[in-house]
Amino acid sequence: MTLNFPNRSRSFDQRNNYVRFWGHDGAMEIAFFLETAALKILNPTLPNEQRELLTEFDKSLARIHEVAEKVYRRSKPGSHACTITAHNF
């Protein structure tokens, strides 16, 4: 099956400093945790404010999904969660 992202929902977790979003591999839902440092690779002047982080996430969605798929494919088979770091970009 191909990883896809039919759910455009995302949320910012301030305590863990990441944006959470979801993908699907067939019927299996995968949670992704995109560290804010990764968003700052895409936009180095990005402030650490929820609104700006989510706006940058939305603007960079195609690139983020591309990286998410690569991280997922390299993860342990059957993984239901993947963390995306700045290193992945």
Overview features:
alpha+beta, 35% helix, five-stranded mixed β-sheet, Double Stranded RNA Binding Domain, 5 strands
Domain tally: 1
- Helix-residue proportion: 25-40%
Beta-strand fraction estimate: 25-35%
Which CATH architecture is right? 2-Layer Sandwich
Q: Unreliable segments (pLDDT under 50, ≥5 consecutive)? A: none
Instruction: Look at the helices and sheets and give the structural class.
Output: alpha+beta
- The strand count comes to 5
* Shape type: globular
CATH topology: Double Stranded RNA Binding Domain
Mean pLDDT score, rounded?
93
Number of helices: 3
CATH homologous superfamily name? Answer: Shew3726-like
- Secondary-structure element string: EEEEHHHE
* Name of the top-level CATH class: Alpha Beta
Plain-language structure description:
This protein has 89 residues and is of the alpha+beta class. It has a single domain (3-88), classed as 2-Layer Sandwich (Double Stranded RNA Binding Domain). The protein is 35% helix and 29% strand. It contains 3 helices and 5 strands, in the order ββββαααβ. Strands 1, 2, 3, 4 and 5 form a 5-stranded mixed β-sheet that branches. A hairpin with a 4-residue loop joins strand 2 (10-13) and strand 3. The longest helix has 14 residues, at 61-74. The chain is globular and about 35 Å long. 15% of the residues are buried. The mean pLDDT is 93.
